[in-house]
Specification:
CATH class: Alpha Beta
Structural class: alpha/beta
Largest sheet: 6 strands, mixed
CATH architecture: 3-Layer(aba) Sandwich
Strand content: 25-35%
Mean pLDDT: 88
Oligomer: single chain
Order of helices and strands: EEEHEEHEHHHEHEHEE
Radius of gyration: 17 Å
Distance between the termini: 14 Å
Number of strands: 10
Low-confidence stretches: none
Helix content: 25-40%
Length: about 230
Amino acid sequence: MSENPIIRVRDLRKVYRVGEVEVHALRGVNLDVPRGEFLCVAGPSGSGKSTLFHILGGLLAPTSGAVFVDGHDLSRLSDSERTALRRRMVGFVFQKFNLLPTLTAADNIAIARHIAGRSLDHDPWFRQVLDLLGIADRLHHKPSKLSGGEQQRVAIARAIVNHPAILLADEPTGNLDSQNSAAVLRVLRDLNERLGQTILLITHDPVVASYAHRVVRMLDGRIVDDTG
């Protein structure tokens, strides 16, 4: 791993207003994520981890504080610049697979490639990813013909098809049984170990967290533990 953090967070705060009540989702979070790290942010529901996830991905603006992604201060970027940075730098995997049911696995993946103006043809890196994910022989099947674990692996392929530097995964095994969960987590660990993919994974499950290099635990909007 490189010593230069690809993500740097300083005194990050997020306050939501619910009627007359202010809800403090983040209360001064500081965090560095080195390039090539597999980091897990763990904590119970309401701890602030999903809010942190959405801010790091440029999907939500903080109330105050700073987020740097590959040296870029997100607060200084316009909406279009943040979108361009997110498209270039970040892949997202969510608990819900969000695959289009009328399209094959290959077409679901190709959409992300098309949006970025790239072709899947003659891309040996992508063939390597397909082999690692174990879905090379499932590309012509629609989601209804795939298991939950296969659907999530297609979603992972879609997230990394454009070579993002960062993969953000929010409860990626939440809809899977234990066998498929383990298979997906092994895939994520292989992506990190073999390809050097920086991964930030959100979970409430200590078994899921055990696959990461480092676990950051959140409670009530704060980081309360940071262990290797």
